[in-house]
Write a sequence for this structure.
């Protein structure tokens, strides 16, 4: 990476231009990446960049920015560099222990909120990671009794940090291998965004997923192992008329719908994401 000799004199506009030129070849969101990283280094809001394009960076800010741009050039996700990602308009702390929340998962939250559930419904989020789904639901339905579980200890700690930061103390967060910590409990709604990518998928060699743990991304049986396990076991933990709602890969919908029907779920249906891909499938359990 070339380092400008007039480093200390760089202003905001020049710094952005430089970062864009560095990132253009490796990131398809180079402009946005440059802005988000610079804002993080300056600790300012977005309008600041446009209002003060000629404001010079301090040497310290410039050095920090250069280091971050270099890491981004190597592929490190912007969310990991700034330690945060917005989901459902809420700021989530993120780190390399779990998945970075995706905009497509907001469709699962929206679908859950549209279900005809009572004010104090019992809800379980399996494999919560950052806590994104559970905490987004809590932000909209403060009386829902929400439990979020994750098998990975560091993910549980991260979800708890987000719970504290967003101030939803009513959400219960437990370390659990799928249903193991809620063995004797039943729910009105069980949601999950489990690992569902095939272990040999070439998508795993590209972009942000290279920096996310495989435990949050991949599953055996062409990505279906965890989806099937949850669908099968959830039947023992759903109240009569309860719903199961699962995120999945865009090519997994037909097989998953068939599986849910075969397992005895009713009203099986799939919802598409913002890119028009089949993304979430739900079914209802009547025992
Ligand atoms: N949708 C994510 C991706 O394809 C994967 C999420 C998951 O495995 N649960 O990058």
């Amino acid at each position: 990476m070339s380092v400008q000799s007039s480093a200390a004199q760089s202003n905001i506009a020049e710094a952005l231009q430089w970062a864009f030129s560095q990132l253009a070849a490796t990131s398809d969101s180079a402009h946005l990446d440059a802005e988000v990283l610079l804002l993080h280094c300056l600790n300012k809001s977005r309008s600041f960049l446009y209002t003060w394009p000629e404001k010079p960076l301090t040497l310290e800010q410039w050095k920090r920015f250069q280091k971050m741009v270099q890491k981004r050039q190597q592929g490190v996700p912007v969310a990991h560099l700034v330690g945060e990602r917005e989901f459902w308009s809420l700021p989530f702390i993120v780190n390399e222990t779990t998945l970075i929340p995706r905009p497509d998962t907001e469709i699962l939250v929206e679908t859950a909120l549209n279900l005809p559930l009572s004010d104090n419904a019992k809800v379980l989020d399996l494999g919560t990671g950052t806590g994104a789904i559970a905490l987004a639901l809590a932000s909209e339905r403060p009386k829902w009794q929400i439990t979020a579980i994750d098998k990975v200890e560091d993910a549980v700690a991260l979800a708890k940090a987000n719970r504290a930061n967003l101030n939803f103390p009513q959400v219960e967060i437990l370390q659990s291998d799928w249903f193991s910590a809620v063995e004797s409990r039943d729910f009105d709604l069980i949601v999950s965004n489990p690992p569902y990518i095939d272990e040999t998928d070439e998508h795993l060699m590209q972009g942000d997923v290279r920096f996310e743990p495989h435990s949050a991304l991949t599953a055996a049986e062409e990505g279906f192992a965890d989806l099937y396990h949850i669908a099968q076991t959830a039947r023992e933990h759903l109240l009569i008329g309860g719903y199961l709602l699962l995120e999945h890969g865009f090519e997994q919908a037909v097989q998953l719908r068939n599986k849910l029907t075969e397992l005895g779920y009713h009203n099986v249906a799939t919802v598409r994401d913002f890119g028009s891909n089949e993304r979430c499938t739900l079914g209802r359990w009547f025992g």
